[in-house]
Fold this protein.
Amino acid sequence: MSEDCIFCKIVNGQIPSKKVFENDTNIAFLDIRPISTGHTVVIPKKHYSTIEKLPDEEVGNLFKAVKRVALLLHEKLEIDGYNIVQNNYKAAGQVVEHSHVHIIPRNKGDRKIELNVPKEGASEEQLDQVLEKIMA
Ligand SMILES: [Zn+2]
């Protein structure tokens, strides 16, 4: 637990939440600033700042919970699809430093989230340069 963490406070009941799922290791609750109706956040009950800090077993538990909640939202909210978004560090838009996964319901044509995919692909050389750095 981390004292100043809003998600830890949700886990221990100090802050109320609209819970949609809970088991021994994880909880999921409705995001209070939803991008779309049913936007849900899934978190580990233990405090880890980013995905990198989660023990492998906790990663497994987290994504098992994500799958269960995704199925639940898909069935019950009659949505066309959903995005699973997991931000790490401020540069990537992480606001709460307690690792979490967003499940964002989508409907055809809602334009709630759009990936900025460039029209042109990278050159073979650019891809090789990146690959070299990663694999070095
Ligand atoms: Zn926390």
Observations:
- Residues 6-135 form a domain with the HIT family, subunit A fold (CATH 3.30.428.10).
- Residues 2, 5, 7-8, 47, 98 surround zinc ion (CB under 6 Å).
- The longest helix spans residues 56-77.
- The mean pLDDT is 96.
